[in-house]
Amino acid sequence: MSAILPPSERLWWKQPIDKVEWAWIGIAFVWGMIMFVMMVYWHVYGKQNLSNEAYKTTPEMFAAKAEKFIAENTVRTETDLQIPVVKVPAGGDGYLIARLWNWYPILELEKGQTYKIHLSSMDYQHGFSLQPVNINIQVLPGYEHVVKMTPTKSGTYAIVCNEYCGIGHHTMLGRIYVK
Amino acid sequence: MATTYRTCPSSGLQFENNAEKLMRWNAVVGVLWLLVGGITALLVILTRWPAIKLLPADQFYMILTAHGIDMIIMWILHFEMAVLYFASSTLLRCRLATPKLAWLGFWLMVIGGIMCNIAIFQGESSVMFTSYVPMQAAPHFYLGIILVAVGALVGLGVFFGTLVVAKKDKTYQGSIPLVTFGAMTAAIIATFTILAGAGILIPTFLWSVGLIKEIDAQLYRMVWWALGHSSQQINVAAHVSVWYLTAAVIFGAKPLSEKVSRFAFLLYILFLQLASAHHLLSDPGMSAEWKVLNTSYFMYFAVMASMIHGFTVPGAIEAAQRKKGYTNGLFEWLRKAPWGNPAFSGMFISLVGFGFLGGISGVVLGTEQINMLMHNTFYVPGHFHTTVVVGTTLAFMSITYILVPTLFRREMILPKLCQIQPYLYGISMSVLGLVMMGAGTLGVSRRHWDMAFSGAPFQYEWPGAAYLMMGLTGIFGVIAVLGGALWIVLVVGSLLFGKKLDGGTVSDKPTPIPSNTKAASAVSHTDKDDHVAVPGTVVLALTLLVTFVLYYFVNWKYLSEVWLLS
């Protein structure tokens, strides 16, 4: 008679299902379909979709590209560590290295312009967490992820590392300027 | 093969000697791991509480790794082994298949657990529960987990073997009970899960001893999560079974429809194996089509299954209560439920918390684009503390109030405190989950020692609300730890000092489950008149749906406000 005994009705699969239960199953199904359609809809009409553009790479290859980009576009350096501030050409490509334990270099962007930001890690896995916007993207070694970004507001933004990467994880803070 | 069968006088449950010992030992070892997990939880909480910040960074990451491993693998797996033996040998009233192998599995799990903890506390394996490559732990960290997995696999084999024994010995007629069916789905998912785990942990172990040169970071994440998330589906299937079990024991509740409930369990098997996908939504290596397909087609059928259980479990209780005469209004059946019985109150808080908090947050988190707002933030542990802790752990805690008198033959000590415990633990853990999700919504990172970023070349100041949420996390975290500690004290205290209860008659032969199918089929014509409407459950379910829909779309609104991405 209960859930801990064999079904009292031996042919339980022939028992009819109550209409209230059918209705709930139907609601759950339709809701699932709506949620499915929302994701597809957002790919067509939404303006926040994570890029699919990614390439296999190596830390050496990616570092070489990033260094070239930094050498060509640096506008100044900041802090005692002489971290280069690199102005990404409007509509162009920018490179951001994730490594133990910093984001390198500092990027300078303009509001309303679209940039292709290339992300990769030199060592462990890292997490690109742009604050206070709150966009979070996984950064993996061996993968170059090209994310198209359009800043909508000017200001100074922080890149927090939100994938645990060892003892200095909490010091891994980067910066993006949007003018 | 000489064994004996004991019939518990209070519950009528029949325990086979070998199975009973295995259940007890697995439960006891599980509780010991919960103790370790609880102590580490307190240290984690007191470090993440910005006003206290107890531990230095290296110890914090070590303790956090231990907390994850000991709670989510050791405590839950050991308890689940007990649940599996109960659902097979006890509910089907048959002998346990190959008890010696079952003990081998048990000891493998114990040795593996200890080995893994030694690795963690030596300090060279602070790699977190997920142990993402290329960060490397000591070889015995991986080996320990592999041993636990092999031990669990052996236990699963014993469970399936026991189902065969019951069938062969004809200890029941017709189909297996729903609770056993649910446990079986958990065991089937567990088998796949552990094989996926072997697929990634064995290469990782070989890599840690230098036999394999490199493991691709994306590949690791994909295969690891087939272990990491699917294992949570084992928990879901197990704790849903425990909900049905509790409802059956306390109310004599019968499933509204065997067909619907079993079908929902079946959906778990069919659609949860690819649950790894929603951990990779913000990863570079997977296409959008792959992400959408796996989070919708595969996940939403599993979500549907949970929504069905979320309806049929309270529905079964409502029907049973209404038959007893609690028919006034929509909610008399619920108001007059035994709220002073910790087995019921814990189970009901587990049900509501899992549905409203864990379920909704999980689906929102698992939506392809919305995931970018929450990936790796404090939202994620907020979500899984409302699924695995409020859902699974609290369900297991509440069933223990039934198991201690029947399985361990001891009366629970301090009944007043027993009554309070599920509320103390369940409510504080639910609030904890909520404020953690709040902090995550504001961007605060998970697995992060210092939200003030001391030693960083720049500064970033989190909004004041984020600090408030983290302070609340501290307060409710400490209360939750107290609630958990109270449970351990009550259970261990009862095992040691509780009044001994009569074990009941012992026999050499199992007493088969009385065949009530004939009697039942005789009245089956009246079954339709027997049907009870469950309007209260309908209202509860619709409330869940409305909350779900609103929260889901609020997050799309949040997403539309961030930088444009394509």
Any overview of this molecule?
The complex is a heterodimer of chains A (179) and B (566). With 179 residues, chain A is of the alpha+beta class. Chain A folds into two domains: 12-45; 54-178, Immunoglobulin-like. Helices cover 23% and strands 37% of the residues of chain A. Chain A has helices spanning 19-45, 59-73; strands at 54-56, 74-78, 83-87, 93-99, 102-104, 106-109, 115-121, 126-131, 135-139, 143-150, 155-161, 173-178. The radius of gyration of chain A is 24 Å and the shape is elongated. The mean pLDDT of chain A is 95. By secondary structure, chain B is mostly helical. Chain B has a single domain, classed as Cytochrome C Oxidase, Chain A (Up-down Bundle), CATH 1.20.210. In chain B, α4 (139-168) packs antiparallel against α5 and α11 packs antiparallel against α12 (379-407). The model of chain B is unreliable at 517-528 (pLDDT under 50). β10 of chain A pairs antiparallel with β4 of chain B.
Largest sheet of chain B: 3 strands, antiparallel
State the CATH topology of chain B. Answer: Cytochrome C Oxidase, Chain A
Oligomer: heterodimer
Strand order of the largest sheet of chain B: 2-1-3
Low-confidence stretches of chain B: 517-528
| Largest interface: chains, residues each | A-B, 90 and 111 residues
Structural class, from secondary structure content of chain A?
Answer: alpha+beta
Assign an overall shape of chain A: elongated
Helical stretch count of chain A? 2
Globular, elongated, flat, extended or rod-shaped: what is the shape of chain B?
A: globular
Order of helices and strands of chain B: EEHHHHHHHHHHHHHHEHHHE
Rg measurement of chain A, Å? 24 Å
